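Researcher: Re-running this chain for the archive, since the previous output was lost when a drive failed. Same request as before.
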Amino acid sequence: MRNFLDRAKDERSFVALTGLDRPTFDNLLREFTVCFKKRLRRKSGKSHQRRAGGGRKSVLGSIENQLFFILFYLKSYPTFDVLAFTFEISLGCAAASVHRLLPILERAQKNLLVLPKRPSNHQREIKEIKELIDKQENIVVDATERPHFRPKNKDDQKKFYSGKKHRHTVKIPLSPMLKGGF
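Model: Regenerated structure tokens:
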């Protein structure tokens, strides 16, 4: 079995391929291995038909190679065809490996407390953003004019016409966005 980690000859290329340096990779590998082995156990508690570790082995080989594979996928996000060609595996194996390894990696990252914070409720997220904005003295908002249908009323035409764009647009006002105007 080929060791894909050998392809990354130095630290720079390893970071370029995975997005992590070696010490961080090793730390993640320890937790990934724990999560990987837990996934193999049955939840029901029933006995296995074969001994633990029996059955077909992964085409990717060691757990270290599998972690490298999924980090490479997430860093460069290639198509499954390119991924299969790069790792010299079949297209189906590439797709199945990604779908099998992603939840394990997510569980390992959750255990290491390195996943980004995601509010469970949209209202709380908006409230946190408003509180953050109220604390800031100056806020810059990038905005554009969006195309709008041409109104029939002449006053509305003047209101929506943009001389800059030479068409009717919706103008996004910046002043209400500055303080508490969400």
